[in-house]
Design a protein that fits this description.
2 domains; Gyrase A, domain 2; 195 residues
Length: 195
C-alpha cells in the first residue's frame, strides 16, 4: 500500500525557511550594527587624535609666540642700549667742543679783528664782530678752511661801521667792517675720532 504522509510538510518547510530568513536577517542587522559601531569608533578615535594634535600645535605656537615676544623685548632693550651708548659716545666726543671752540677761535682770529658775539646752535656757530679791513675777514675765512675742527665758513654780512657807533669806538679812528660769519664746529675726521 502506498504511504500517505498526512503531516503538513509544506508548512514545516515554510516555517524553517522563515526561521532561517529571520536568523539571517538578525545576523545581517547585527553585522550592520557592528560595522556601524566600528566606523563610529574609528572616526571618533581619528577626531580625538586630531584634536590632540591640534592642542599640541596650539601649545607649541603659544611657546613660540612667547619666545617671539621675548626676542622683540630683547630687541627693544638692545635698541635702547645702543641709543644710550650713542648718547654717551656723542657726549664723550663733544664734551671738549666748547673748549676746542674757544681755542680754535683764538687761532683763526687775525690781528685787527675782534668778536662781539658768539652764538652756538648744535654744531653751527655764528659769530659777529668787527675788522679793520676786508683782508682780515678773508684771512679769518682761510684759517677756518685750514682748521681741522671748524669747517664750512659762510660769510653772511659785511657792512661799514661809522666812527660814532658804540661798538666801533674800541678800534682806531677809522671806518670798521662789521661782519656776521657762521661755521660748523665738527672734526673733519670720521667716526668722531679727533685728530
Amino acid at each position: 500500500m502506498t504511504d500517505i504522509n498526512l503531516l503538513p510538510w509544506r508548512e514545516k518547510r515554510r516555517e524553517e525557511k522563515k526561521r532561517g530568513f529571520i536568523i539571517l536577517l538578525m545576523l545581517g542587522v547585527a553585522m550592520a550594527c557592528l560595522v556601524t559601531f566600528g566606523i563610529y569608533y574609528y572616526s571618533t578615535e581619528l577626531i580625538l587624535e586630531q584634536t590632540a594634535r591640534n592642542q599640541r600645535l596650539k601649545d607649541k605656537i603659544t611657546i613660540y609666540e612667547n619666545r617671539i615676544k621675548e626676542i622683540s623685548g630683547l630687541k627693544k632693550l638692545r635698541q635702547a642700549l645702543v641709543s644710550r651708548m650713542m648718547v654717551v659716545q656723542n657726549l664723550q666726543v663733544t664734551r671738549t667742543l666748547t673748549v676746542r671752540l674757544f681755542d680754535e677761535v683764538i687761532k683763526i682770529m687775525p690781528d685787527g679783528a675782534y668778536l662781539t658775539h658768539i652764538d652756538r646752535v648744535k654744531d653751527k656757530i655764528t659769530v659777529k664782530g668787527f675788522a679793520e679791513s676786508n683782508t682780515n675777514i678773508s684771512e679769518m675765512m682761510r684759517k677756518i678752511e685750514a682748521s681741522s675742527w671748524i669747517q664750512h665758513p659762510q660769510l653772511t654780512e659785511i657792512k661799514k661801521s661809522e666812527d660814532g657807533s658804540k661798538d666801533a669806538s674800541q678800534l682806531k679812528e677809522q671806518d670798521k667792517n662789521e661782519f656776521n660769519l657762521s661755521f660748523i664746529l665738527k672734526p673733519k675726521t670720521m667716526f668722531g675720532v679727533t685728530p
